Amino acid sequence: MSKEEAPSSYEYVALPDRRPLRFPNGARLAVILTINIEYWEKFRPGQKEPLFTGGPMTIPHALPGDVMDTANWTWREYGQRVGIWRIMDVFDRSAVRPSCTINGLTMLERRRIIDAANERGWELVPHNWAQNDILTSYAGKPDEERAVIRRTLDTYEAVVGRPARAWLSSAIRGTPHTPAFLKEFGLIAYCDYLNDDQPYLIQTRHGPIVCVPYSNDINDFNLFARGGMSSSSGLETLKLGFDQLYAEGAQTGRIMNFGMHPHVIGQPHRVRALSDFIEYASSHKDVWFPSREEIASWYLKIHESHIPKGKPSA
Fold first, then answer.
1. CA angle at residue 65 from 226 to 266, to 5 degrees?
2. CATH assignment at residue 175
3. Which range of residues forms the domain containing residue 165?
């Protein structure tokens, strides 16, 4: 597919070739605290590939997708029954609001959680229909991908009560068509890419959409579930990442995204790491805790002052 035919594309612009990025009110670091509230199907008839692709298992040796993996499914459900409420208690004691990603099935099967987050004014970001039904399953079938996105967005508007503005694909696996479909449907932020510490524009055939980058390194899966860190080691890693980005932000603004899952960070022996990190980050001046919509709305207004024109791209 040629560049002219591509549904979406973005330029390579090296960090030294960008003008300094100045966040609102002089902030030097934007911290996004992301809670991924995901719903996995119990099984999928006829599917032999495991359902839990893209996420670690609490019990190894994955079962076929047409057999319910009770241990791994209920491990995740712990986050919905217990972990998310423990996390809500942490945020209720702070002045910070997180950005939550939610599957279409989360909206239908776990409405109690969605309503509680909505009542608190938390950002809610659609995260595909089911966590295990990733968009790359529809690679080469754009009409089917578009239908999944449309179904998710329609359910979002019906349940949440407003149109969605940002999107994060389940397992952070979209296709080259995904940004264009999102722009077509009126969204302003796409969050799958892991390639930057600053926002930038993705050009689509329907116009530009803002990339608000995600991080799979600063993530409770890689710190705790995959990485095996203790709560204190994970907290130290979070502080080290924050300190480096905060220092760099004195010259040009940075984004730090901490991705979390209620069945991981919401465990009783780990949740203190979250509360301590919020306290640590909040103790610094010039730190912004925005929603993805806030970052994208702001960046659409100022992006021309960020990337110098005429720089080479590849």
1. 35
2. 3.20.20.370
3. 8-305
